[in-house]
Amino acid sequence: MDRIYRYRMTTTSGGNLSIRDADGNIWITPARVDKGNLTRNDIVCVAADGSVDGLHPPSSEFPFHKAIYAARPNIQAIVHAHPVALVAFSICQQTPNTRLFHQAHSVCGKIGFAPYACPGSEALGASIANTFSEGCDSVILENHGVVVGGDCLASAFKRFEAFEFAGKTLIKANQLGELRFLSDAQLDQAAQRGVDFQSFDPGVASADERELRRQLCEFVQRGCRQRLLISTEGSFSARLDGDAFLITPTQKDRELLSAEDFVLVDGDRRETGKLASRAARAHQAIYKQHPHVQAIVFAHPVNATAFSATDVPFDVRTIPESYVFLRDVRRADYGVQYGSDGSIADFVTSRNPAAILENDGVLVTGSSVLDAFDRLEVLESTAEAVINAKSIGAVSAMPKSVIDELCDAFNLK
């Protein structure tokens, strides 16, 4: 709940979480307690026999939590909140199309829509439970918000977060132009990619490696706080030396990573006991082709990803800083980064350090972890500014004379 509140995906009084334990007890957030200041002692236990143990009454929406658990024995945790993008869909009686990018489609599961009923009522519980009983995992509540379920609270949170991210991206992309969604074949292409590394014991980490691990940990966590990365998606790596680099692991919550969680990859080997990101081969191809690159980020920030889901060109010749940091951002066709031929490396150079990946966010390179993160921030800020500008009037790009002046002033070759 702290993360949901901190990410501004609910309000002080809104939303509730619950967990069903092995004995059938339901642990749920309390009614009328500040969501930004909850402690573990505030959580209420409603036993299977209906008795309540806690300092506060349970959430007024306990009835629909109970109804979902009754309808779906495989669900052990529920997240309900009112994040603004998904509330917007609920007001319009629509559900987000998660085929926008593969991770959203994979994580969010089957999407449903529950007709309106009064909050806290048995009728609302029946409406939501009926939708979940149809096999839905993420459900929009008409004129209300969203409910998602999972096999544990961590997976329910990840599903909720990915669902809201997809909703935000769809809203932004709709402001740009016609959206492009992924076919079954394209979704399968992403799902079937794998990483085949042999394991090895790298021995004691050097001081340089320990420092890179610290930096990666710091900036991945910052990226989550800045909403440039989400817990289920995005990879960040840093070159160590030669063919060796450190990269985010797969199947781990990005914000909760420690320095030791990052995986050392060296040639065809990866650190024993750890699974490297499925994007590791793409990172490896870029390092091999571009000796100047020292850090790489693949990410899905909302505004830049909106450009990736449309055919609208992303023009950074709108803000001097953007051009100096990013130059001209290329666009890679869908799936290039999943291939085994290393052709993803052709889409970035020393002159063009970033690329838009069709229906898959962005790729950013840098001369250091800080440099790559800085460019990612600039890329997303620029994308947001351009999208906002389109709602005001015609976007004015800088003329060639200004670009030439910038190239001279900042020694851009």
Automatic annotation (TrEMBL):
GO cellular component, one term: cytosol
Root EC class: lyase
Gene3D superfamilies: Class II aldolase/adducin N-terminal domain
GO molecular function: L-fuculose-phosphate aldolase activity; metal ion binding
Top-level taxon: Bacteria
One GO process term, biological-process aspect: pentose catabolic process
EC number(s) per entry: 4.1.2.17
Keywords: Lyase, Metal-binding
InterPro entries linked to this entry: Aldolase_class_II_sugar_metab, Aldolase_II/adducin_N, Aldolase_II/adducin_N_sf
Domain Class II aldolase/adducin N-terminal: 3-171, 214-387
Protein name in the entry: L-fuculose phosphate aldolase
Organism of provenance: Rosistilla ulvae
